[in-house]
Design goal:
- The complex is a heterodimer.
- Chain A folds into three domains: 31-194, Aldehyde oxidase/xanthine dehydrogenase, molybdopterin binding domain (Aldehyde Oxidoreductase, domain 4), CATH 3.30.365; 208-279 and 338-414, Aldehyde oxidase/xanthine dehydrogenase, molybdopterin binding domain (Aldehyde Oxidoreductase, domain 4, 2-Layer Sandwich); 287-329 and 427-457 and 493-713, Aldehyde oxidase/xanthine dehydrogenase, molybdopterin binding domain (Aldehyde Oxidoreductase, domain 4).
- Helix content of chain A is 29%, strand content 22%.
- Chain A has 18 helices and 28 strands.
- The termini of chain A are far apart.
- Chain B has a five-stranded mixed β-sheet, with helices on both faces.
- Chain B contains seven helices and five strands; from the N terminus they run E-E-H-E-E-E-H-H-H-H-H-H.
- In chain B, helix 2 (81-88) crosses helix 5.
- Chain B has two domains: 2-75, Ubiquitin-like (UB roll); 78-157, Orthogonal Bundle (DNA polymerase, domain 1), CATH 1.10.150.120.
- By secondary structure, chain B is α+β, with helices and mostly antiparallel strands.
- Chain B has helices at residues 21-28, 81-88, 98-111, 117-124, 134-146, 148-151, 157-163; strands spanning 2-6, 9-13, 47-50, 53-56, 69-71.
- The chains are: A alpha+beta, B alpha+beta.
- The interface between A and B is large, with 62 and 58 residues.
- The structure holds FE2/S2 (inorganic) cluster (2 copies).
- One FE2/S2 (inorganic) cluster sits between chains B (92-98, 129-131, 133) and A (63, 335, 385).
């Protein structure tokens, strides 16, 4: 039997509790990184006749351990030692795109969206290999089983390695398969060591910054500090004479300086004389933004994002609690500054892209070069951190624009830390008007959350439409469709509002969103809307608990009677932290959140001296469904807690003259080891399908800290970062 | 022309005297394990040893390095007890800061083979990790300090260089 790879559906119904698989192999383009002669039952997996097992990793590894987790998913069902699999970043192909049509890594979604496809990809291949072996031996498949990498013949005791079966397996694409029971897992559910730990401890791991190509040049871009300012004129006469400088020219975002090495490009950039023209944000500063938000909160009515009961009733129901909360702009600052490398030659383009979205990178490159997407090859790379920043690929647009001016030459673009900090897509500054009433029985009767924020989604329509619409849709039409789809979010943005819909049992409840855009570039920052809305909601519920004269844990539990997964994380965190019995001189605060369908409760313990406080300990309980790798879950919670604490404690990004005032880690400090608390992570055992963990530990930490500071000082801090005095 | 030793190999490079050692290592010697994080001595990603002392190579001009001995992450050889401890604790996440963390940790332990928790926090405060691997770094340093390599007689910086 021989089958065509195109437009073909593999998998079939199996008897007795099997499943129907529709792994679509419709592909209008060949799979990237395909090896001649390999057995490739689907986009993800190849087995070469020499026995190499090669996995196309469809998500970006940015530290969250996805390389290990996804490889293990496939390996478990294929029955092959994960550490022996050759892992390559997938190129752009629609078979790698998850629901929604994009290959973006984000929203803590990678495990959830890969759980079925990757297990099925592995299981389908294993079934084909068994069928091939059974055919070779002339026995039934029921007489065959596998051990990692080999098929066993239970009658004769013979063994055949997967490589030896690769050729014949191609003829068994219809083979039925079943997924393993969890009890049969060799690797999943266990703390197998991260696959990248050695290369990342020896200096051998390679990042975008480390790309080396023959004859490669290095470039930097001089951008205006002020957002929206434009290039008036520039004089590069002196700079062009500097050692090693190859070229200096304008691109869409500023002036590009190309030299033989980074240092020479950077030094020459200082010699370029530039006149910038003020744009519409020339007079914008943080105080003005705050004033605009206050006015909007007071005078405007917005889009009702959720509503239950009638919050208007609260006007007539006794005493109202009212609080205004706010959160500032926050920077991502992944450890590796933005960079990318490209070669543009006529109608062809090749990009080495440290990106969370290879397909969006391809679309952005197509836009800036005019080259058709199918002629643009994207090599995804290991990321030196991302946290949402590398979902935006402005640096890809820049590097292809530069490389196009020097045809056939590899050009690397390197941002400085200052570039990175001043040209980020920040967590938006937001303001929140909260009102609530308590019923006679001390339970919450009404809750209104009025949120003033800009729309993150509005700005995404264009690049997303250019990415996921088919190539035959002309670029301009795609962009117009994108703008239109962005307009759909003109009134509301589900991403900046996420987390505002609390699970508490409150009869009269409403979230209203008032969109207010200052023009400062904003974007997805680790946990997105949850990061500010959970701070607000979990602080405010604490205020209500104190107003009702109740223990904050008991108060929460009383409002979560029909939410067992919330109950479980709260109780586990309380138990492990010794809730109510802190060490002498320590004070506790608690919070519970549900970001991206996972659950997390945190108890933060602080000590306070004067106006200085120390975060002593953070105890987390998480429920992210079935846990693929407990050690990676713990590492991600530790990571999110420290990232979240940095933003909760350290000075924010501020705006003056339409520009970011901070420039590097001295004036935009982040959490260091001496400020990092003891962190404990406990996992609720669960058989639910797995959900994410990369962002889950973040949203609870700021409110739990604010609540602990209230316990210590009776001061309610309603503004991030949290500063006493 | 500047002459110096990196990982026991002699090098001579012809660059402007203000070129930071970091960019000589990366752009001229293709020793890519040492990372660029801030370029201002603030993050520690670029940490190397200069005659055994942890040094931020992004703010060290090559002119200050003449005739001196440099050790980079590559020079630890991959089986250094601190690297082994990093691997045992699965410390790295994105990994980008870890060369610098490891070089700082090795220098710390070379000077103080049994550091207290406060010694570790102070010794490592110059190294930022945006992925928040601090708890594991601390644990890895504590384990490495227990290793025979440190608990035996090893106290001299020189021994590190000779080992590699
Ligand atoms: S790159 Fe040298 S200290 Fe940050
Ligand atoms: S491991 Fe990512 S910055 Fe440290």
């Amino acid at each position: 039997m021989s089958v065509s790879r195109r437009g073909f559906i593999i998998g079939t119904a199996t008897v007795g509790g099997g499943l129907w698989l529709g792994l679509s192999l419709r592909g209008d383009a060949p799979y990237p990184n395909a090896r001649e002669g390999s057995f490739q039952p689907n986009a993800f997996l190849q087995i070469t006749p020499s026995g190499e097992v090669i996995f196309q990793l469809p998500k970006s590894e940015m530290g969250q351990g996805i390389q290990t987790s996804l490889t293990t998913l496939l390996a478990e069902e294929l029955d092959y030692e994960p550490a022996d699999i050759i892992i390559e970043y997938a190129g752009v192909h629609k078979d790698f795109a998850a629901a929604g049509g994009s290959q973006l890594t984000g929203g803590s979604a990678s495990i959830a969206v890969s759980w079925n496809p990757l297990r099925e990809a592995g299981a389908a291949a294993r079934a084909m290999l068994i069928a091939a072996a059974a055919g070779r031996w002339g026995v039934g498949v029921e007489s065959c089983s596998t051990e990692p990498g080999v098929v066993l013949n239970s009658i004769s005791g013979e063994k055949l390695g997967y490589g030896a079966l690769a050729e014949e397996a191609k003829d068994f694409q219809h083979t039925a398969f079943e997924l393993k029971e969890k009890s049969a897992y060799r690797w999943l559910g266990k703390s197998t060591p991260r696959l990248d730990r050695v290369a990342k401890s020896t200096g051998e791991a390679r990042y975008g910054m480390d790309v080396q190509l023959p004859g490669m040049k290095t470039s930097v871009v001089i951008r205006p500090r002020q957002f929206g300012a434009t290039l008036g004129s520039f004089n590069a006469d002196t700079a062009l004479k500097a050692n090693g400088v190859e070229a200096i020219f304008a691109i869409h975002s500023g002036v590009a300086v190309v030299a033989d090495t980074y240092w020479r490009a950077r030094k020459a950039a200082r010699l370029v004389d530039i006149t910038w023209l003020d744009g519409p944000l020339a007079n914008l500063d943080s105080e003005a933004i705050l004033a605009l938000q206050k006015t909007a909160l007071k005078n405007e009515s917005g889009h009702i994002a959720m509503e239950r009961g009638d919050v208007a009733l609260q006007q007539t129901r006794g005493e109202r609690l009212e609080s205004i909360y706010s959160a500032p702009y926050t920077h991502h600052s992944p450890m590796e500054p933005q960079n990318a490398t490209a070669i543009v030659n006529g109608d062809n383009c090749e990009i080495w892209a440290p990106t969370q979205a290879p397909d969006i990178s391809q679309a952005v490159a197509a836009h800036y070069t005019g080259i058709t997407r199918s002629n643009i090859v994207v090599h995804a790379l290991t990321l030196g951190g991302a946290f949402g920043r590398r979902g935006y690929v402005d640096f890809i647009g820049e590097v292809v624009a530069i490389a196009q001016q020097i045809p056939g030459t590899a050009v690397k673009l390197v941002w400085s830390r200052e570039d990175d900090m001043q040209h980020d897509f920040y967590r938006p500054a937001t303001m929140h008007g909260m009102t609530a009433t308590l019923a006679e029985n001390g339970k919450i009767d009404s809750w209104q959350h009025r949120l003033v924020s800009p729309s993150i989604v509005k700005g995404l329509g264009v690049s997303l439409a250019s990415t996921i619409l088919p190539e035959w849709v002309p670029t301009e039409m795609a962009r117009a469709i994108g703008r239109k789809s962005g307009e759909l979010f003109a009134g509301a943005d589900p991403t900046t509002a996420e987390g505002a819909k609390v699970a508490y049992d409150i009869p009269n409840f409403a979230v209203e969103q008032i969109l207010q855009d200052s023009g400062v570039p904003i974007g997805f920052w680790r946990s997105v809307g949850f990061s500010h809305n959970c701070f607000v909601a979990e602080s405010f519920v604490d205020e209500l608990a104190h107003a009702a004269d109740q223990d904050p844990l008991k108060f929460r539990l009383a409002h979560l009677e029909n939410a067992p997964r919330y109950q479980a994380v709260l109780k586990l965190a309380a138990e492990k932290s010794g809730w109510g019995n802190p060490r002498k001189g320590h004070f506790q605060g608690i919070a519970v959140v549900e970001p991206f369908d996972s659950f997390c409760a945190a108890v933060v313990e602080v000590s306070v001296v004067g106006n200085e406080y120390t975060v002593e300990r953070v105890v987390n309980a998480v429920d992210c469904g079935f846990v693929l790798n407990p050690d990676i879950v713990a590492a991600q919670v530790e990571s999110a807690v420290i990232y979240g604490l940095g933003a909760a404690m350290k000075p924010p990004i501020t705006i003056s003259g339409g520009a970011v005032q901070q420039s590097n880690f001295h004036d935009a400090p982040v959490l260091r080891m001496n400020e990092s608390p003891v962190i404990e992570t406990y996992i609720v055992q669960s058989d639910e399908d797995p959900t994410g963990i990369g962002e889950i530990g973040l949203p609870a930490v700021a409110p739990a800290l604010a609540n602990a500071l209230f316990a210590a000082t009776s001061k309610r801090l309603r503004k991030l970062p949290l500063v006493l005095g | 022309m500047f002459e110096f030793t990196v990982n026991d190999n002699a090098y001579a490079v012809d660059v402007e005297p203000d070129t930071p050692l970091l960019w000589v290592l990366r752009d001229h010697l293709q020793l890519l394990g040492t990372k660029f994080g801030c370029g201002a001595g603030l993050c520690g990603a670029c940490t190397v040893h200069l005659d055994g002392t942890a040094t931020r190579s992004c703010v060290l001009p090559i002119s200050a390095v003449a005739d001196r001995r440099i050790t980079t992450i590559e020079g630890l050889g991959g089986e250094h007890p601190v690297q082994q401890s990093w691997i045992d604790h699965s410390v790295p996440q994105c990994g980008y800061c870890q060369s610098g963390q490891i070089m700082s940790a090795v220098a710390l332990l070379d000077g103080n083979p049994s550091p207290s928790e406060t010694d570790i926090e102070q010794g490592m405060a110059g190294n930022i990790c945006r992925c928040g691997t601090y708890p594991r770094i601390k644990a890895a340093i504590q384990s490495a300090a227990q290793a025979e390599y440190y608990s035996a007689s090893h106290t001299s910086n020189e021994t590190v260089g000779d080992d590699v």
